[in-house]
Amino acid sequence: MIDLSRSALILVDIQNDFLPGGALTVPEGDRILNAVNTLAARPFRAVIATQDWHPKNHCSFTAQGGPWPPHCIAGTHGADFPEALTPTPVTHIVRKGVLQDRDSYSGFLDNDRATSTGLDGLLRGLGIEHVVVCGLALDYCVAATALDARHYGYRTDVVPEACRGIAADPGSALEKLKKQGVLLKSVEAC
């Protein structure tokens, strides 16, 4: 069993725009909510939600030459957490993708690999040694967050049943995570 007093649960980008009907829907993204709420109810030292929080003219949007439709624009309903996500256990929110000229898949660093979101400092300040990562999308932001957690020296688990990706088959993303030392755990094992 995990020592939850030295562990944090990181909920990656569980936001309206990534759920069915949102601007950038992750297929079956809503199917993770029960597993996520079950995890969040456990006595982790911290439950941290990352939140895409983009300006209206963000570089990742197609109108600015990026790959994605406009999504998770700061202050909009699409950037909010869904009502079905139990907010009570969330102790901290880390916003990412907040600068117009760079994106941020990872909860730790912008895609320039130099600009910190502050997540590492927060975890260290809380005495966290181990993180459990779940959310949307497995093959982008969840994977980037988990790999950066390993890079920063945290024991890192991903819970596949509490994740969904853009790709229909999660096998490639999960294999990449395992090769980098990320453990795959079930909800019951956390």
Automatic annotation (TrEMBL):
Its EC number is 3.5.1.19. It holds the Pfam family Isochorismatase. The keyword Metal-binding applies. SUPFAM superfamilies: Isochorismatase-like hydrolases. Keywords: Hydrolase, Metal-binding, Pyridine nucleotide biosynthesis. The keyword Hydrolase applies. It comes from the Bacteria. InterPro entries: Isochorismatase-like_dom, Isochorismatase-like_sf, Isochorismatase_Nicotinamidase. Belongs to the isochorismatase family. This is nicotinamidase.
